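Course assignment 3, question 2. Fill in each field.
Student: A.L.
Task: Predict the tertiary structure for the chain below.
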Amino acid sequence: MGKIWNEIQYDLEFLGGHTLQPQWFKVVKVFILVGVGVGYHLLFGWLATLLFFAMFVLLMLGVHFAYRIKTKKYTTTWLDFVVYEQDGERKMKRIGKFYYGAIAVNALIAVIVSQVLT
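Answer field:
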């Protein structure tokens, strides 16, 4: 259990400190998620909203772990995750079309699943 907790801490530290997205977007996406949740609830009810978010989180965990594994814990380049060295320090370029495309596809799948199951 300790090893799993260490890996979760590693990911949380990376997610909190990365520069793959602008700092303002890290804050704005919380409001986006809350807004989507409230809007989805008003349109389709709590059950559909819970199904949507459960499916979306599950699918995005898949994306997260794919990036984590393929980039060897965020240390090597893969798809739109680009790692480079500058002044002896490892840096990463901003993520792009593949990651945001996965978000869009996963959101669409989550909508379909939540609508079909309710």
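Instructor remarks: The mean pLDDT is 94. Helices lie at 2-17, 23-44, 46-70, 97-116.
Grade: pending
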